[in-house]
């Protein structure tokens, strides 16, 4: 884990798919797959993320034949404890930048780690 991880801080972990439902059809761009806040350093560095879940985890599941999808995972250092009210808006067309600005005042400066991976489900053979 990055040396910028502070043992006394709390973190937010978000995961989204900017290619939903496909790269040619962005009707649900930034599909929200997971949001967990108030994660302690020990949970973060162990890989067993425990905190207050605002959006339950939804595993990657690109539609068949929709091509490769990027799944983005970002870890942010929180400025303060975040109220654990679930995000009640649709997962479709989520705006991660807006959520970060509203929830973490230091915004993009709070990013301590980010990555992405690709996944796809090919067309079924007949």
Gist of the model:
With 126 residues, the protein is mainly beta. It is 11% helix and 32% strand.
Strand content range = 25-35%
Low-confidence parts:
none
C-alpha-based Rg, rounded: 15 Å
Biggest β-sheet: count, sense, barrel? Answer: 5 strands, antiparallel
Number of helices: 2
DSSP, total strands: 5
H-E order: EEHEEHE
Mean pLDDT: 89
Share of helix among residues?
10-25%
Task: Give the distance, in angstroms, between the N- and C-terminal Cα atoms.
Answer: 45 Å
Question: Would you give an account of this structure?
Answer:
This protein is mainly beta. Helix content is 11%, strand content 32%. It has two helices and five strands, in the order ββαββαβ. It has helices spanning 41-46, 96-103; strands at 10-17, 31-40, 52-55, 69-77, 111-119. The chain has a five-stranded antiparallel beta sheet with strand order 3-2-1-4-5. The longest helix has 8 residues, at 96-103. It is elongated, with a radius of gyration of 15 Å. The N and C termini lie far apart (45 Å).
Structure keywords:
5-stranded antiparallel beta sheet; 2 helices; 11% helix
């Amino acid at each position: 884990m990055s040396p910028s991880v502070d043992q006394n801080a709390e973190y937010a972990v978000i995961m989204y798919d900017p290619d939903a439902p496909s790269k040619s059809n962005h009707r649900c761009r930034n599909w929200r797959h997971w949001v967990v806040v108030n994660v302690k350093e020990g949970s973060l560095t162990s890989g067993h993320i425990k905190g207050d879940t605002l959006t339950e985890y939804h595993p990657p599941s690109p539609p068949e034949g929709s091509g490769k999808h990027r799944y983005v995972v970002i870890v942010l250092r929180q400025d303060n404890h975040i109220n654990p009210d679930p995000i009640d808006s649709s997962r479709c067309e989520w705006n991660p930048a807006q959520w970060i600005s509203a929830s973490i005042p230091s915004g993009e400066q709070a990013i301590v780690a980010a990555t992405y991976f690709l996944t796809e489900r090919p067309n079924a053979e007949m």
